[in-house]
From TrEMBL:
The chain crosses the membrane at residues 13-31. InterPro entries: N_methyl_site (IPR012902). Keywords: Membrane, Transmembrane, Transmembrane helix. This is Prepilin-type N-terminal cleavage/methylation domain-containing protein. It comes from the Bacteria. It comes from Rheinheimera tangshanensis.
Length: 286
């Protein structure tokens, strides 16, 4: 007698299909969770990297800003300041000592080589003496434009004389108590610019602007287009109705330097925002 060959019954096939479905569902869930964890980790790393970059870059530049040169826009979305190119001490000052040019000595520890000094400045740079408010830079009320620098050999070393690019040399209205002067070219500005076609109207990008000239009015986002600036960071959340502004400024007092408050909230794609509250101290001794 020959036995009949056996196969799978319908019930067994259904059980196998159900078990395979359960295993596939668990495997897909595990893979999906792993992919989501990787995406969140990558997004957090991106957010942390760009936020640290812009905060550290802004902090370093502001700490090298000229005394009393910081200006904040009325809405708190822009901070403007003037980077320092060179600082020194003078011996004679036009308009105060009736001199026709500015004789200068270097700070201790800096090279007294006119070649090194000339490499730092250029025709068209500005020199300011005793700036106690931003208008002394931006309105040029205590500022003159440089034309050239020449050196005169003396027994004690070299005396550097600065010439001014002005048809009528008016001079400086007030001398510095410590005989300080500051040389600079143009301001720098960091602004929050609304993201184009963003689904969230409160998302902004941070742009850095330079080489845009000298503007007397307070900085505003509308003054400069984002195409003229360098993108520094993205996805910064800012609601104009909130009490904390991205940038604010406190004037220096006798016992404290000037302070720029930076409050930035970087938005994540996974509702895991990163918040920075930074105080940047700027020397305010003119």
């Amino acid at each position: 007698m020959v036995s009949a060959s056996r196969g799978f019954s319908l019930v067994e096939l259904i059980l196998v299909i159900i078990l395979l479905g359960i295993v596939s569902t668990l495997s897909l869930g595990f893979l999906r969770n792993g992919a989501e964890m990787y995406a969140q980790s990558a997004d957090r790393e991106r957010l942390l990297s760009q936020s640290r970059f812009v905060i550290e870059r802004l902090t370093r530049e502001l700490r090298n800003a000229l005394p009393n040169s910081v200006r904040i826009s009325s809405d708190g979305r822009c901070v403007e300041f003037i980077p320092l190119k060179f600082a020194g001490r003078y011996t004679e000052l036009p308009g105060v000592n009736a001199a026709t040019a500015l004789d200068m000595t270097f700070f201790s520890g800096q090279s007294n080589s006119v070649t090194n000094f000339s490499s730092l400045i250029a025709e068209g740079d500005f020199i300011t003496v005793y700036p106690t408010q931003p208008e002394h830079y931006y309105s040029k009320s205590r500022t003159l434009e440089l034309k050239a620098a020449t050196a005169v050999a003396e027994s004690s070393g070299q005396r550097v004389t600065l010439e001014f690019n002005s048809a009528t040399l008016i001079g400086f209205p007030q001398a510095s108590p410590n005989q300080r002067f500051f040389i600079w070219d143009f301001p720098v500005r960091y602004c929050l610019v609304a993201k184009p076609a963003a689904t969230n109207i409160y998302l902004h990008d941070i742009y850095r602007f330079d080489d845009y000239g000298l503007l007397q009015q307070l900085p505003q986002v509308s003054d400069l287009g984002s195409a003229a600036g360098s993108l520094m960071a993205t996805d910064v959340f800012f609601n104009p109705s909130q009490s904390l502004k991205p940038f604010s400024y406190e004037d220096g007092v006798l016992k404290r330097s000037s302070v720029v408050h930076v409050v930035l909230s970087f938005s994540s794609n996974f509702a895991d925002d990163l918040f920075f509250n930074q105080e940047i101290h700027i020397p305010n001794v003119p």
